[in-house]
């Protein structure tokens, strides 16, 4: 269904005449859909499968990753967004050229491209595997079809198609997670039963203040580490910067950031 939305908005946005129209939605995108798109872009299939697994096997301390976006928001709000809007760049690589030189921009672009070359196949593989397990459709065929459709609507619709597809996808994801939460909780006897079993398995860990860096998860490593992770993902990623710049003003971009954090 989300792919259908992407194709629809792709055709609706096909008559784009400028780079700003294509890359930034004409800088007229609405606040809430952009915020939802930001959430959807960070809440990948990898996150939905890996984070619950991490907490199930190694305890609840990793839930501090939900607090670090608040710390990240201060950095993005006061450092990154004002610079992006003052310069009115289309991508953050333009900033690197302005601040340093063209060669630095080229190196950063190559590194970003190489990173995505290795990362995106994993992003595609995980939902394709889940789809294969549910439907029995060939895994590799699913991955190819999914990739081609996404490339198609992104190419013809630009950022506008991507944002609205992400927004719809997030609605479906949140509804699905809500159903899983309710059904899972009821099936094991309620939250009290979950807490009791977590305690019996030594999985309820809220504050481990040990500074030892060899421990898998501590308060310091999770909170500090994921704060820098969030800052890099939201403040320094070209795809997220593009979404912030798609709204009409700096104040709107800050509202997007607040909604994203919540």
TrEMBL record:
GO terms for cellular component: plasma membrane. The chain crosses the membrane at residues 31-49, 61-85, 106-125, 137-156, 168-195, 215-235. It is a multi-pass membrane protein. GO terms for molecular function: monoatomic ion transmembrane transporter activity; symporter activity. It comes from the Eukaryota. Pfam families: SSF. Belongs to the sodium:solute symporter (SSF) (TC 2.A.21) family. PROSITE patterns: NA_SOLUT_SYMP_1, NA_SOLUT_SYMP_3. This is Sodium-coupled monocarboxylate transporter 1. PANTHER family: SODIUM-COUPLED MONOCARBOXYLATE TRANSPORTER, SODIUM-DEPENDENT MULTIVITAMIN TRANSPORTER-LIKE PROTEIN. It is found in: Cell membrane. Keywords: Cell membrane, Glycoprotein, Ion transport, Membrane, Sodium, Sodium transport, Transmembrane, Transmembrane helix, Transport. It comes from Ignelater luminosus. GO terms for biological process: inorganic ion transmembrane transport; sodium ion transport. InterPro entries: Na/Glc_symporter_sf (IPR038377), Na/solute_symporter (IPR001734), Na/solute_symporter_CS (IPR018212), Sodium:Solute_Symporter_SSF (IPR051163).
